[in-house]
Amino acid sequence: MAKGLSPAGKKAIFRFAVLLLSALALQGLYPLLFLLEGDGAVLLMVLLTYVLLPAAAALLPCWAALGGAHPLAACLPVGGCSLIVGAAPVWVGLMCIALSLIGAAAGQEWQKRKKG
Questions:
Q1: Chain segment 30-48, per-residue pLDDT in tens
Q2: How far is CA 52 from the centre of its chain?
Q3: Which residues contact 80 (CB under 8 A, 6 or more apart)?
Q4: DSSP 3-state of 103
């Protein structure tokens, strides 16, 4: 009889769930920024689109893959949400997918080296 998930499997699922929720939360900020007015809103939009989104695209999949999530599954949420929501330019979504692939591969390699 199966006992259920191992602790490593639970950790991988938790990290993947956090990755998904973070990606959706980042995309959920766009409608809120459209409600603001003035130069501050433009600055926040630029920071979100060109700094925070690419940084999250590189770091979150690395963190998820380091926890045991599959790298190909970890690379899609941030860039994929960006492409689906469509608030950021298309090239930002594609760049985020590329950064996510690199980050997820780095996380998997880091996990392999950590295990020995």
A1: 888 888 888 888 899 899 9
A2: 10
A3: 23, 93, 97
A4: helix
